[in-house]
Amino acid sequence: RERGPARSAASLTGEPPPVTRRGAVVWQGFSPGRRDLAARLTLDPQIEATRLPLSVAVVFADAKGERPLLPGGAIPGAGRVTVTVSNTTAQPQDLPTAADAPAVELASVLDHLRQGRPSARRLPSTSAGLPSSVTVTGPAQVASTQAVPYLLQGSLSLHGTTGTVSGPGTTPSRDGGTIRGTLGGSLASNASSTVTFVADVAGAGTLHLDLTAVAALNPAELRPPQPFASWREWAAADPSQQSRRQALDLVVAVAATGARSSSYSPYLGADLLGSGSTEFRWSFATPEKAVAKEVLRPKWGPIGVTGLAAALILGNLALIWRRL
Q: Average pLDDT for residues 11-24, to the nearest whole number?
C-alpha cells in the first residue's frame, strides 16, 4: 500500500497495475517471495502542489506589463522571462541546544559530514551517519526555523529565438544556461531559500525548463570558520564557547533536517521495508491539443419522416378533442 492521493495507476511492467482506493494505491496478489513492481501514478495536482518541497513560478514581461507565460513555455515576443524557485520546507521547530560542547567531538561529526557525497538523496540522520547523542553541558532548547536543503540542477534553454540566461549558479550555454546549486539550508536563516533566473529573449520562441531537485546538505553551511581548512584544525585552535555552541547548533540542525527529509523522500511514504529516495523534476506540460471531430450535417430524410410523424400525432389529438 502506498499513500496517494492518486487518480490512476498504470503498470510499467508485465505485472497487473495496482488499484486506487480513495486515493491510496494498493498492490494486491500472491508473491513468490520476490516481485519487482513499477507503476506510473497520476496524482491530484491541486493537492500535491502544496506538498512539494519547491515551488516554481514563471512570469513574462514586456512593454505591455507582466503576465503568465503561454502554455508549454511559449514566449509571445521580445521581453524578459523570470523563473523563481523557492524552497518551501522551512517551518518553526524547537531544537535541543546547550551552553557548551567539546570541540573535538563536534569537529569529528562535521568533518564526517563534509566528506559525504554532494547529494545522498537521503540525508544523514541519527539513525544513519550521525551520533544519537553528543556530550554537552547546560542542555536547553531553542526556538528555531529549520528547512530541508535541495540540490537544484538542470537547464533553461531557448528554442526558436535568441537570448541570454542568467542567475545564481548559472553557466551560459549555446542556447541558454545550465544550473547547479543548493537552495536552502539546515539552518534556514543562514541560506537563501529563493533564487531567480532571468531569460532576456529577442523574439517569439519557446522556453524549455528542465529542473531536478534532490535533498542534499548545503556545502556552504558545513565549511569551518576562516582561516581553518577543516573542523579538526578549528578544534585544535581552542575555539571560543560561542563558536563551540554555533558548531553544536549546526550538528543538531543537520540531524533534524535528516529526520524531516523523510517527509519528502520517499515522497509517497510507501509502507515497505528498506530505503527509498525521490528526485523531483519540473518542466512545462505539453499543451493539450483540440481533438477534431466529424462535422455533423443534417440528414433531411429522417428529419422529414420525424416531421410527418409529428403532424400525424397532432392530427390524431385534434380528432380526439372533437369527439370529447
A: 84
Torsion of CA 121, 125, 131, 132, to 10 degrees: -160
User: CA angle at residue 293 from 292 to 295, to 5 degrees?
Assistant: 120
Tell me if 7 sits within 8 A of 46, measured CB to CB: no
DSSP state, residue 224: P
Phi and psi for 21 in degrees, rounded to 5? -130, 110
pTM: 0.80
Burial 8-21 (b: 16+ CB within 10 A, else e): ebeeeeeeebbebe
Alpha carbon of 113 to those of 67, 231, 237: distances in Å? 44, 11, 20
Question: 202 in the Ramachandran plot: left (φ > 0), alpha (ψ -120 to 50) or beta?
Answer: alpha
Q: What is the mean pLDDT of residues 174-199?
A: 88
Task: Give the cell for residue 184.
Answer: 536552502
**What is the spatial distance between Cα 98 and Cα 84, in angstroms, rounded to a whole number?**
38
Pull the grid cell for residue 311: 403532424
Peptide bond into 168 cis (omega under 30): no
Q: Which helix (H) or strand (E) holds 234?
A: helix 231-236
Q: Are 62 and 79 in contact (CB under 8 A)?
A: yes
Q: What is the pLDDT of residue 150?
A: 93
Adjacent-strand bridge partners of 198:
82, 166
Q: What is the mean pLDDT of residues 268-294?
A: 74
Query: Does residue 100 contact residue 244 with C-beta atoms inside 8 Å?
Result: yes
